[in-house]
Every structure is written in structure tokens, then in C-alpha cells.
Hints:
The chain is α+β, with helices and mostly antiparallel strands. Among the domains are: 1-145 and 434-447, ATPase, nucleotide binding domain (Nucleotidyltransferase, domain 5, 2-Layer Sandwich), CATH 3.30.420; 193-267, no CATH class; 485-646, Protein Transport Mog1p, Chain A (3-Layer(aba) Sandwich), CATH 3.40.1000. It is built from 16 helices and 25 strands. Strands 17-22-23-24-25-21-20-19 form an eight-stranded antiparallel β-sheet, with helices on both faces. It has a four-stranded mixed β-sheet with strand order 2-1-16-18, sandwiched between helices. A four-stranded mixed β-sheet has the order 12-11-10-15. A hairpin with a 7-residue loop joins strand 1 and strand 2. Helix 5 (134-144) crosses helix 11. It is globular, with a radius of gyration of 26 Å. Keywords: ATP-binding, Chaperone, Membrane, Nucleotide-binding, Stress response, Transmembrane, Transmembrane helix. This is Hsp70 protein. GO terms for molecular function: ATP binding; ATP-dependent protein folding chaperone. Residues 445-512 are annotated as: Disordered. InterPro entries: ATPase_NBD, Heat_shock_70_CS, Hsp_70_fam.
Amino acid sequence: MISENAAGDNKSEILEIDNSRYLPSVVCLDEEGHLLTGRDAAQEAAIYPDRAELQPKRALVADDQTRLGDRDLRTVEIVAATLRRVVDEATRRNGGPPAEVALTHPAAWTATETGRLARAAALAGLPEPAFIPEPVAAAVHYATASGATPIPAGAHIAVYDLGGGTFDTAVLRRTPEGFEICGPPGGDPDFGGDDVSEALREVVGAQVRHDAPEEWDRLWSDSSTKGQQRRASQLTYLTQAKESLSGRTVVMVPVHAADAQVRITRAELEAAIEEQLTPTVDELIRTVEEAGVAVGDLAAVYLTGGSSRIPRVSELVAARIGRLPVAEGDPKAVVCQGALTAITKGAAAPAAPAAPAPAAPAAAPADTAADAAAAGAAAPTEVIVPARPAVAPTMPFVIAPPAPKAGRRDRLRAIAGRHRRVALVSGVAGVLVVAAAATAFATISTDDPYPTPTPVVATTTPEPVVTTPTPNPLSVAIGTTPPEDDEEEETPTPEPEETTTEPTARDNLGSSEQDLYDKLDMSDLDEESCQSWDVDPDGMDAAIECNGDPKLDYMVAVIQFDSSSSMTAYLDAQAAKVFGNGDCTEGSPSEGTWTSDDARIGRLICFDDPDGEDIFRIFWSHDDEHIVAMIMDSSGAEAGEWWTDNSWMLS
């Protein structure tokens, strides 16, 4: 979700849903017949894959009906549930329904597909939408971005879009009003980032099979609940490694089956996908030529879609086109941001001939009851929303912990539960744009059913995925033991000039660690036990660990991040490990937020060890300071009690 600010100055802000900028595209039918979406759907699908549609985009194009479990549902109902979830969130955050809606779609869609999308929008209760082809939205964004190279009227550009589930190409001509599509769009509906992840799985598997072939095969065939959870966790590791290799040349991939980590290089992954990537560039060239444009006459080639950031993509495109492609900003947000510009600034070009806007579905379908049920189901997607001052979110329930220690902020509350939805916006405007990226999903809803929630490389455990297969365990809690009395008696009294001051724990920390140390309230920590914590997640400025007061089985860890996005990426990865909807204060897995004095302080995430160890972890954040703390203990109840009494970490 993206909001335009009140001044209308073409700035936008991605609005979080499920505490994340990115939501899985998967839709899953639960035991009671309700459609689950987003993180809830991804977790349910890991256990009941037969009830899930991983690629609603393909389903919307392929058939009117989609089978989930033992039920056949209309595909538009699945999409309508997705749109309804986003619109409800936008309405709640902005105090009213959207005045305008724009849906984006693949350029190759015809009136049949856009008609289905319009029907889904009607089921979701949306006003008649405007349709914007995705390459047009991407071109608008790139052409109007700050510092962009001007594209003169009459010039042509090409768009290479490699998303999670599909690959699309298009050629556009710059017009005085915006952009128009030239010639037939191209692409491959059966190739996308999911296939790259599958290729990486094969690369990892080739190494693991040397030492643990049976364990590797069992990892992908175990149908038990635990097996499903381990498989989902492994897929998260693979996705993170794939995205990490866009910025690094080597990663270490944790492998559950071998209880080890496998070293994978960017060269190995690129070799594995070379035969799949080369045809995508061939398709781009074919699309350009069929539009009647010489490759050398292109004014620019724009890359969009999360998988377009694979370095080999730029290399292959540049080698064939003769110029470097343009790839700036967040590749998953390009289409959504362009749609915002198009609908608010009038920069959109006419719709592609292949996808004319269908007539508005004025009348409700015959099975109105089914439509209403589908429209009312919660569903995730990404939307561009009008901004307004932040509104206090409605909490599903509030747990009042025991009174905090003296000197603590009072009325500390833990707000837990994975069904808590968070969306943050500011300012006031008057449009809502749901970017329906090829599946009636808004653009930041990714086609990857188990996406890494943020564009920066995230970790699913306290230790980054590129360095360890399991969370870097905190040091076992230690105590500071004073010298024995007889040792003190044997020590001669030094001369005054020889007296030295023993360094404190703080003195032994680096400068950035000392800055973090100084921010902490040591009334809950043993300050002389503090030491550096050897972790290195993306965006980390410093990390230390100290004994808790009272002690837990492991030391309390605190990480300082350099930005909100880095912190969010780290926490999103932890949230992906939550299976359950319990209460952190009682030692059961959950994901939500925590507040103090009726103000949201940060996120609260807790879960059992994903590898079956007898360890319960709790992560919580102080969002304003970009600080995340973590505790681990063999007793979930004791960890929850410690957090309840000691969660306010700042001085």
C-alpha cells in the first residue's frame, strides 16, 4: 500500500499490512471455509497445501473455477477476498472508502481477463476501477522519478518485468500525455522468480545429497505437520539466499536435512539459471522487433519485478541491447508507484489495445450470497492509498501484564496475535489505487507464495542466513564472581602511583556498541556482564548481550539497526517462523505489537525453536530508536514473564 501525502507533491509511502511491506500472494481455505490470505494463508498452506492457491494470478487467467481442498471456488472470489482485505485496511486507516481505484494488469491481458478482474473488484465493493497496464505504470514511474533521464515524445522504451510468477515484456512509445503500448506484448506466463528459487534448491540439493541424500529427500516428502513446517522454513532460507546473491557473491544456506550449512556462490546460481534467463532476453528482443522498433533506437530499457535484480539479468540485457538497463529503487514497488503517479498526475497513457477496459459490472451476479461471503473474507495485497494523519489501530485484544518495576513506564501492554493488522499512513488525499499485478493483486503483493517480506536481505533467525543455519545462540548466562576474601588478603596494597582502574564492561566495547549500551536501562541487566554479540544482519550498527536481571538461561541480546527498513526486514524474517496464534506473555508463539501509555512502541514476535530445540525466543522492538531486543529460555512461560516485567529496555 502506498499513500500520497497531503501536499500532493508526488511523494509516496509504502503502507504496511501484517507488519510488512510485502505480503505472500497465496490464498488458503481454512477448515471453516474461510479464505485466508497473507501470512496466515502462507502458514496454513505449509501444513495443508491442497487447500491453497499459490499463484492466484495464473488461476485468474487459467479458469473460472479453482479447487481448494474439496471445494470448487470461483477464481474471482479468491481475488475479491484479496482486494477486500486491502480496501478494508485502507478504509480503516483513512476514515472512509476510496473515491477512485486503479487496477494494474499485464499488458497482454484481454477484455476477458480484465473483465474477471472488474468482477472481483465489484465483489469486493470497489467503485468502478481504472485499468492501467503494468508496463505503462512502470514507465511512468521511471520517466517521472527525480533525476530521471527525459524521454522525448515519439521515443520508444522497453520494459523487462521478471516477477515472482511470470515474465512479461512490452515496448512503449512516449506521447505528450504519457506512454502507449506498441505492438504485441511478450513474455512467459510460466517462468518467474519461483523458478529461480527452484533452481537454487537443486544447486543446494546437489551438495547435500553427497552426505545426507535420505534426509534431503525426506525434507521434501515428509507430510507430517512438523515436516511441513521444516519445509516452509527451508523455502524461506532458499528465498533469502537467492535475494542475498543479488548483492553478494557467496552465501551460506542453512539446511535442515543435514543440520549444516551449504556454501553457494552467485556463479553457481547464475550457471543454474543461464538457460532460463537467456530466452527471456531473446523474448525482449523479439518484442522490440515485432513493435517495428530497432533495438539500437530504444531510448531506455526499464527493469521491474523482484527477480529483475539478479545481476545476470542486467548483464544479459546490456550485452544484447548495447546499453545498461535502468533499475532503480524498489523493483517490487515500481508498478504501484507508477500507478499512483498516473492516476493522480494524469500521466497515464491510453490502455493497451490488448486489454481494453471492460464495462462496469453494475448488477450483482446471481449467487449474491456467495459473492458477499467471498468479498467479506480477509485478503492481502498492495494498494496505493490516500494519506492522512495516523489513526490508532483497533486492537483485537489487550493483555495487561503485572505492574512494572519502579521507574518503569506504567500501563505496559502486550498486544499479541497474528491477526493483528498494522497499516501506517500520514497526510490526507483522495484516491485509492489497488495495483493488481497480473493476478488482481496490487504490485507489492508478490507472486512468491513465501516471499522475503522486504527487499533487503532478511534473516529468519537472529543470526543472518548467510552465516549460520540456526540462530546464533546467545551466550549462556554468566555471573560476575568477586574475588575470594583470602585472595584479597594476599594481595599487597599498591602504592598510590601504581593504582590502576580496572576497565568496565562498557570500556571493552567498540564505540558504536558503547552508544547502544548508553541507551539501555541497566536496571533489568547486569551491566558488568555486557559484551559484544557476534552477529551481522544487514543494516546492523551494533549488537551487545548482557545477563538479564533476573537471569534467564541465555543472555539478553540487543541490536541497533541503521534504519527502519533494515529493522523491519530483520523482524519480518523472524515473524515468518511463527506457527500459532498464542500469547508471548504466556510462552506460546505469536506475532503482533506492544504498546505503552496507549502508544505503539514496536513489534512483538515469539516462537519455539524451528529445529526442535527446547528454546523459546521473544523478539521485540523500539521502533523509534531502530532497536530490537531478544531473549531465549528453555521455559516459554519464564521468558514471557521476564518480558512482561522487563520489556522497556531504554533509559
